[in-house]
Amino acid sequence: MRLVRTVRSDKPFASLTEFERVFTELGEALDRLDRQRYVILADVRAAPGRNDPDFEAALLRMRPRWLGGFRKVGVLVQTTVGVMQIQRYARQDGIKRLVTIDEAEILRYFAQAD
């Protein structure tokens, strides 16, 4: 199914500059793919919680570089609160995605015909 998986570690970013550098590099690596031919599973279960305004603004700018252009997007989270937060992000950036705590559900979603 041409699956790309990104996994967020539990290590917090030292600064917004570091966050933006890492996500710029991630976007550049993903740009080497023909995104339309791939699905992406973003595993953010270990991500440290953070929702200060500066971080939220940076994340809003970076999400399209990370998730944009893929055939399907699935986001794996740890909690129901995480589901709600990522659904809010989807409304903000307009990138359709399945958000769940169940990896098998994402894989079934990816296997379904477009």
Topology:
Layout: E1 3-7, H1 16-31, E2 39-43, H2 53-67, E3 72-76, H3 80-93, E4 98-100, H4 103-111
Parallel strand pairs: 1-2, 2-3, 3-4
Helix pairs in contact: 1-2
What value does the Rg take, in angstroms?
14 Å
The tally of strands reads 4
Mean pLDDT comes to: 95
Percent range of helical residues: 40-55%
| Uncertain residue ranges | none
Please tell me what the overall shape is. Answer: globular
Number of separate helices:
4
Q: What is the straight-line distance between the termini?
A: 12 Å
- CATH architecture name: 2-Layer Sandwich
Largest sheet descriptor: 4 strands, parallel
Strand order, sheet with most strands: 1-2-3-4
Order of helices and strands: EHEHEHEH
Counting helices, strands and paired strands, the structural category is alpha/beta
Protein name: STAS/SEC14 domain-containing protein
Describe the structure.
The chain has 114 residues and is of the alpha/beta class. The protein has one domain: Alpha-Beta Plaits, CATH 3.30.70. The chain has helices spanning 16-31, 53-67, 80-93, 103-111; strands at residues 3-7, 39-43, 72-76, 98-100. Helix 1 links the parallel strand 1 (3-7) and strand 2 (39-43). This is STAS/SEC14 domain-containing protein. It comes from Archangium minus.
